[in-house]
Description:
Layout: E1 9-11, E2 17-19, H1 22-35, H2 49-55, H3 58-74, H4 88-101, H5 105-123, H6 138-150, H7 156-164, H8 168-195, E3 202-206, H9 213-226, E4 230-233, H10 264-275, E5 279-286, E6 291-299, E7 304-309, E8 327-333, H11 351-366, H12 371-388, E9 398-401, H13 407-415, H14 435-450, H15 456-459, H16 472-475
Parallel strand pairs: 3-7, 3-8, 4-7, 8-9
Antiparallel strand pairs: 1-2, 5-6
Amino acid sequence: MAVQNRIVKVQKRNRALVKFDAARIRRAILGAASSIGGFQQDLVPGVNDTIFNAYGTEDRIAEFLADAVVVCLNSDPHHLISNFPPTIENIQDEVLHALHSYGFQNTADAYSCYRWGRHWLREGAIMAEKFAGNGFPRERMDRTLAWNRQRGCDTVAGLSEIVRSGKIKPLVDESLALYEQSLDEAAGKVMQRLNTGDPLRMMWVSGPSSSGKTTTTVKLTERLQKQGLRFLMLNLDDYFWSLVEHPTDWINDRNYETPEALDIQLLNQHLTGLLAGETIEKPIYSFKEGRRVATKPIKLEPGQILLLDCLHGLYPPITEGIPASSQFRLYIETQNVLFEGDGSSRQRTHFTDIRLLRRMLRDVQHRNHSPLLTILHWHYVRSGELFSIIPLSGLADHVVNGGFPFDLPVLKPFFCGPNGYLPRLEDFQTYTGFLDALIRFGRVKHLLESVEGLSKEHLSNFDIVPGDAVIREFIGGSTIKIPHNE
């Protein structure tokens, strides 16, 4: 349909002015949707089904969304002045605004990941062969899907049948064996780097929130310590800015998920100094007081490797000036490929929903933070990881899949039932403007209700899920020391 447009030009990143072409917006939106299997992946009854009913085809839906972007751009009177047109970044921001506003959450995530991946490509932080695209690595996903299909756990229906028939234990064992094998491979790569003369002094374990970094860090370092390596761990939480520099939003929430929440300049100085053999005064941060309260001198001894478990370990400004040859970077993400229902809809469950459930459980059990607030906070989580984590995953020296086919049955008993932690729909009435939170809630609720779960009694001992499994980091009972749960 025709919409009013008075914008004539666009400012490129080199500041040159070129003719405004709304068709480019439509093509970009359509490309993002196509990369995840089409707009159907974003169909949410009661939210955007009227758009699907009215426009029908992929092209027409993309055109409608592009028109919405044009309307938003025209609402700023500055954009109507020919010498002060919208920039490329303005337009991209409005694309994401339109997609989120109409509930096209998955398309928005794919668009955002691609956008920031291209940014890091232009910055020279990654090469073209390391470009992560929309964040869904096709080769790894196909490999995981084939593994799941062989065991009948590629669909929620198949997974439920495995639980009902009492065959979950072999699936748990095989899944964990594959994870342990990946850690063996990572340890082998570290030793190979050292044995071939690389001046390796720093090891990162990075990945999105609740992907299993802490358990993975402990397990990997145990392997390497048996090979004679020694580590000095640096807690990057101590580099948070004070609370007064973290303004709250209207629900009194703070964004700790962005790399800018850390004092990156000081952190980079300290990393550089440690590798140079200097003694640094590491800050000590008090979360109770919301500020740094002291410092502690530390030094990296000869032969030691600096160990860092961090969301943003791949973020280029943190390691600026530090050669790649002195670093080993492991990336972990929950990438278990699982289709909804019996698989006939071809709609995949979402990696991020498993991590959301894990974090909800961790927050309520160990941080006195309600599951409702965790869901409301998750837009900060996604924004941060789609900017500085997932698009940079191609920089990793090794990738570990921290998602397991048995995650959902194990998580279900903690959320469902009379004492379950899952919020109620009426809890969102105060937050009706948080459409993304409402969509996530509806999605995880449907997912939990559709899968056959284990009982808490099954999980009270280690007969099915061993104490050193990644999921124990979140459900409790871990036999590995989890610092952030103490």
